[in-house]
Amino acid sequence: MDERRESRIPRTGIPGIGIGALAGSKPLESSKTVNAPTTGAIDRKRKAADASGDAAPEAKRPTFSAGQGARPTRSNTTTGAAAGRTSSLQQATSTRTGPSQANPGSELGPIAEETWDDIRDKTGQGVDEVLNKKLSFPKGTKPERKVEAFVPLVKELKALGRHLHNSTQRLELDAEQWKRHSAELAAQAEVERQQWNAKQEEVEKQMKEIREMLEQQEEQNNRLETEVKEGQVRLAAKETELASLQQQLEGVQGELERTAKQLEERESKIKEMEDVVRTGQKYSTTLQSYNTSLQADLTAEKTRRDEVQRAKDELQGQAAELGGKVRSLEQLLAYEREQVGKLREERESATRDLAVLRADLDNTRQERERAMADSAKMKEDLDRLRTAGGKSLETLEALSNDKATMEAQLSMQQKLIASMREELASAKENRAMADATAETRGAQISELKAQVETLQGSLADAERRVYEGELIRRKLHNIIQDLKGNIRVYCRVRPVSAAEAADAGHDSEMALDFPTSGDLLGRGLTVVAPGNLSGQAAQKHNFAFDRVFSPGTTQDMVFDEISELVQSALDGHKVCIFAYGQTGSGKTFTMLGNREQPGVIPRAMQQIFQSGQKLAAQDWHFNMQASMLEIYNEEIRDLLSRKKDDGKKHQVTHDTNGVTTVSDMTVVDVNRPEAVDQLLAQAMDKRSVGCTALNEQSSRSHMVFVMRIEGHNRTTDVKVSGVLNLIDLAGSERVKESGATGQRLKEAQAINKSLSALGDVIMAIANKQEHVPFRNSKLTYLLQPCLGGDSKTLMFLNVAPTREFAHESLCSLRFGSKVNACEINQPKKNVVVPRG
Ligand SMILES: Nc1ncnc2c1ncn2[C@@H]1O[C@H](COP(=O)(O)OP(=O)(O)OP(=O)(O)O)[C@@H](O)[C@H]1O
């Protein structure tokens, strides 16, 4: 643009005009001579050059400036407009100068004398030389001589004067011309400048439009490039698919050829086959009847289970009642024991009193005997005295007084003995009564104990029967599940947290209800979705799953329900257990738990190692390998890698047997549960966890724990190979409500996107669509064999209990129902049995 502007300016600019003026203004050069008297020699050289017709020196002349003349350039002489202007200037000049142009010889006008140019040519003198010329005469020179000598000088001065006069006139004329032309040129330049500005504006506008077009073009190009890349990726995928299809086709063709050969052979055996078919039909009928009987068994079992359950309930009621009775009897027994104890103490003290009384009685007896002996002796003495006739009366009275006192003492002691005997008799009676009561009570207690024992026995029996019934039910349920090929769904509702319960502003009431009896006991739940401001009333929604765990269910009880599924990994099945639910609903608690309440993963490890050890007795040997990964923002990361971020790009591939491989993963041999605990701790350190509005320790990624189990029985040479995939998904989250920004927002968007891709896959499978979009996210592609293959798959549907999350719970439960309706291929056991 600027270049063009520059290139245009010289063509229409002043220098071009200057040339025209110069071309027609030779007299200007004369004026130069006036202003530069020292240039006479140069002027001469110039004239000579002009005469030889060489135009080049013209270009080297000094630049035109006021009072000095103009410098022509070659390019300017070619300009048409300038040439036009030049010729008009020449004309004007010739008009003004008249004869000076027509006859250079008469340039000095009518004076027929030598011109200054002639004089200068002849003498080579400059103006200054002429003006400064001084004439000196020798003394005595005659005046006439002096006058004669002055004549040429005067001539020169005259010529110079004329020349100067003409030059001045021409200069004035030229100056006027120049002024006019400058005005014209300025006007023209102004017009051109305006045109130029208009053009420039136009060009700028065009440039802007072009730039916009370019930007649009670039955007389109980028879009096209992205589309092309996507197309290439799709193409590559299609090519891979095509290649595998071709392989399959080749295989099928080979198979066809083989089949054609076999067909010939088989035709000969067709009759034999028909027999087999007939047998098969019979067998099928038998199987059908077996199936019917199995169904009948199942129904009977269910009825039995219900009966047993009822009996159990009754027994539990009775047991509770009896327990109450036993407790009151035990209290009575304790009271009676206490009474018996007291009576025993009383009896002992009575026995002690009796012994004292007996001792007293013996003493009294001895004293009485002694007193009687004394009395007899006294009687003898009295008789002796009477017979001797001469004893004093005083001694006699004293002796009779002593005798009366002693007899009174004796009668008192006899009374005391009698009362003591009575007391003893009553104490004996009391003891006998207490002994009898204690015996009766003891008999009653033993009888009650026997009753309690009997009841406990029948309760244990009933419980055992219930447990056995439950085991059978579970087995039958599992068989039916396997036959149906459905993904199992176990719904787990977490308890109301302490924070929720404490927060008065929280809508912390339970929004879920569980049936307490009937068919849906342990399998159903009801959500009460609250009404809204637009007047919609609260609504109840009923759901049923394979199992529903209410808030009180412990980790132990939950694992008990899935232990068989875990076990089947050891039998050579592919097993996949994953936890799905909104953020903070208890997925990580269910899958990993904590030190006090370990979850599914640590318990599964414990069980697998214990079962492995038990099976070692039957010569089974197991080799187990673990790996752990997370999908964070649509990128797979190795959680067992030593480096925090190894920067590796991990690719997921599935082989034709549905075995999934993730490239460049750290795989660790494990042979004891503690090793797995260490790996889990290491992985949990690396896993992306953050604090969100709904969960302090929220998982920001999907975590996948994979355990490969290779078993070999050295006696039978049977080999099994199973896989256990245990997955803790990141929680869905309503971005608007969580108020997430920055990295949290990006994470939440990636999580929601992959969960929505999981939803699309589930919908496609449930609706039996031909195309299932497994490739729409890393998660669905990784889970492809679990969702669309032949593995045993179970989903934990984790749900928060409160009204605050009723809407999310409803969405999760609807999703769970869809998952439950998904039919996958029948689970396949990966077992290699040696031939022969
Ligand atoms: N069954 C339960 N019993 C007791 N506490 C529970 C139970 N389920 C969850 N919790 C507690 O609730 C909180 C949230 O649980 P958890 O972190 O497992 O949720 P989450 O679904 O994994 O969330 P996120 O998707 O955000 O990772 C934790 O403090 C956890 O201990």
TrEMBL record:
CDD domains: KISc_C_terminal (cd01366)
Keyword Nucleotide-binding in annotation: yes
Polar residues bias spans: 28-38, 89-104
Biased composition (Low complexity): 73-88
MF GO annotations: ATP binding; microtubule binding; microtubule motor activity
Keyword ATP-binding: yes
Signal peptide: none
Domain Kinesin motor: 486-822
Keyword vocabulary terms for this entry: ATP-binding, Coiled coil, Microtubule, Motor protein, Nucleotide-binding
Ranges in a coiled coil: 186-465
GO CC terms, sorted: microtubule
InterPro entries: Kinesin-like_fam, Kinesin_motor_CS, Kinesin_motor_dom, Kinesin_motor_dom_sf, P-loop_NTPase
Region of interest (Disordered), residue spans: 1-124
Residue numbers binding ATP: 581-588
Domain of life: Eukaryota
PROSITE patterns linked: KINESIN_MOTOR_1, KINESIN_MOTOR_2
GO biological process: microtubule-based movement
Pfam entry (one): Kinesin
Entry similarity comment: Belongs to the TRAFAC class myosin-kinesin ATPase superfamily. Kinesin family. KIN-14 subfamily.
Name recorded for this polypeptide: Kinesin-like protein
Taxonomic classification: Eukaryota, Viridiplantae, Chlorophyta, core chlorophytes, Chlorophyceae
